[in-house]
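Notes from the 1:1 (GR / supervisor)

We went over the backlog. Supervisor wanted to see one worked example end to end before approving the batch request, so GR pasted a single chain during the call. The sequence is below; no edits were made to it. Supervisor asked that the structure be written out right there so they could see what the output format looks like.
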Amino acid sequence: MLDMREMTAADDRAVAALVRKNLKKLGLDIPGTVYFDKELDHLSEYYGKSDRRYFVLVSEHGEVIGGIGFAAFTALENTAELQKLYLDDSAKGSGLGYKMIAFIENEMRKAGFTVAYLETHDNLQAAIHIYQKCGYTEIDRPGSVIHSTMNRFFMKRL
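Structure output shown during the call:
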């Protein structure tokens, strides 16, 4: 069962650790990734608005084992950016990534968005595979990309 809830300030530390652990494991603990974003340690302050929200996946023991969010991507009309999809190693390979993407796409629709956009990197092959299986199509790099190290870009009509 997918136990998702909106992120709170109490989740900030766990989410930041989850993101950094995943990026480090894949060699992406480098400038130009979210690894060094100053906001990463206080994500709950950024999310929680109607046009940007973040949700955590919680284990039966109450531990944060995953997270996924979205925020308006103003460079493209009616578009939300799928952001920070991360899972703890203990939750990988169980199909939860697909369920989390379906969940966040539904949240994007509820917020009025009609297109989903995402940025990723060649090092994240498992994520790229999941995105493609979920119907995301690769596009050229948009003009405004915040994380300069990202080198793969995808879109999907919701």
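Supervisor's comment: The helical segments are 12-25, 43-46, 96-110, 125-133.
Batch request approved.
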